[in-house]
Amino acid sequence: MSERQASRREVAELVGRIGRIAYSFGGRSGLTPAQWTALRFFARANRFSRTVSAFAEFHSTTRGTASQTVTGLVRRDYLTRRRSKRDGRSARLDVTDKALAILAHDPLDDLERAAGVLSARARSDLVSSLACVLGELAERRGRRPFGMCPSCRHLETEECAVERPRYSCRLVGESLGADETQQICVDFSPIQPGG
Amino acid sequence: MSERQASRREVAELVGRIGRIAYSFGGRSGLTPAQWTALRFFARANRFSRTVSAFAEFHSTTRGTASQTVTGLVRRDYLTRRRSKRDGRSARLDVTDKALAILAHDPLDDLERAAGVLSARARSDLVSSLACVLGELAERRGRRPFGMCPSCRHLETEECAVERPRYSCRLVGESLGADETQQICVDFSPIQPGG
DNA sequence: CGTAATAGTATCGATTCCAAACTATCGTGT
DNA sequence: ACACGATAGTTTGGAATCGATACTATTACG
Questions:
Q1: What is the mean pLDDT of each run of 10 residues along chain B (195 residues)?
Q2: Which of A140, A142, A153, A136 has the alpha carbon at shortest distance from A57?
Q3: Cβ pair B134:A23 closer than 8 A
């Protein structure tokens, strides 16, 4: 085995192990790993993406399983369900204050803190490399990469002279608040292929 | 939220997403993600680490669950169980030819190939950054990082003038073949903390 | 020889998981 | 207006996972 291939395998092994340690721990919250993933998703997703189907995509599971996970969280008052007025089939899930409270003690914060041992430069390189790998893997598996507006080809930025820039999405054809450009989106499509 | 914290969160989100996509796909093998993880582990672990307990540590699960997963793989002839002669409580699991055959088409290979889009330099940096984060995260969670001899403080290298170097492990007090220094070990302890 | 620790298994109920069938709504084309 | 297929989401069933707990057997320590 060549050096090149060895380092590829190392990437896969390390990501797998970190992901596993991060995923498998729910703390004493009474929430399962899947429920934690769902809460994080609905807290971070923009208003077009807070649906059962988008979460199923995000979590790489079926809509049926995602539906069950969401139902459990709604029943426990971590999410509220609101039927869409535009599309009678669709419903939007929003996190409750109870969810925000528990998310303040997210066990995944351990991973964030662990990333803090890297220098800012190393962390920046790590993020771009991971984004690149994720984009490539998502493409190979036929999955959506998810991501935020700043690197999305659907974002339209209207520079105004005096005011702040105005953002909108070419895909859904709606204007976006500046904060919404920092939320994750199911329709994200990277400007440069692969990250 | 500062830039520093934002990039930490991005690391966590990206690792989580990549890990999830990589983990959740079993292909048409009939094996579950947990079973794939077990097969990979027993194929990559050294002879001191191919036990139910070590796999439970590796997979961040309980010994009970790990026992069930292993039992299923033994029943399907992917693993063989051999009781230890030194320790009557312990048993060693070895992968069968059937397991090696299916591992040749490991769905996780997609992730390795995705890592191939990075330059060798970027990949090398990625590996060391991830190893650093993993070491730190494992410490925070009180988990073993697992790793290989070259960066383990238990490795003893005896340099011989004409012959190849001889390796041994200070912890278990046994000599190691050169190939065994490239297998993952439950007793791995990094030379530099967090590295 | 007795006690504590360790390796592993067995069992429980809750959850996850996928697949498949199902309802309801939307979009398109005629 | 109507049929058709696509989409959003739920439901059901069976297998597997999961954590917790209790359990057996063996080893280590004193």
A1: 76 90 76 90 94 92 91 91 91 94 89 94 95 90 88 90 86 92 92 63
A2: A142
A3: no
Quote the minimal CA–CA distance from B20 to chain A in Å: 7
Determine the Cα–Cα distance for residues B19 and A82; give it in Å rounded to an integer.
Answer: 31
At B160 the pLDDT is 82
CA distance A148 to chain B (A): 11
For residue A107, which phi and psi values (nearest 5 degrees)? -60, -20
Q: CB B120 to CB A58 under 8 A?
A: no
Residues pairing with B169 in the sheet = B155, B174
- What is the per-residue pLDDT across A115-155, written as a single tens digit (0 to 9) for each? 999 999 999 999 999 999 999 998 888 888 899 999 999 99
Among residues A57, A181, A118, the alpha carbon closest in space to that of B24 is found at: A57
pTM score, two decimals? 0.90
Percent of chain A with pLDDT over 70: 95
The mean pLDDT value of chain A amounts to 89
Numbers of helices and strands, H then E, in chain B: 7, 5
Question: Roughly how many angstroms between the first and final C-alpha of chain B, as a whole number?
Answer: 28
**Contact call for residues A166 and A155 (beta carbons, < 8 A):** no
DSSP state string for A98-161: HHHHHHTT-TTHHHHHHHTTS-HHHHHHHHHHHHHHHHHHHHHHT----B-GGGBTTEEEE--S
Q: Which of residues 91-130 of A touch strand D (CB under 7 A)?
A: 91-92
How many residues are there in chain B? 195
pLDDT (tens digit, 9 = 90+) per residue, B31-88? 888 899 999 999 999 999 999 999 999 988 889 999 999 999 998 899 999 999 889 9
Q: Round the average pLDDT of chain B to a whole number and report it.
A: 89
Token code pair at residue A132: 């690149």
Residue closest to B30 by CA, chosen among B71, B76, B66: B76
Contacts of B12 in chain A (CB under 8 A): 22, 108, 111-112, 115
Which amino acid makes up residue A149? Answer: C
Angle at B56 between CA B55 and CA B58, to 5 degrees: 60
Measured between alpha carbons, how far is B190 from B147 in angstroms, rounded to an integer?
8
- Decide: CB of A31 under 7 A of nucleic strand D: no
Interface contact A16-B9, CB threshold 8 A: no
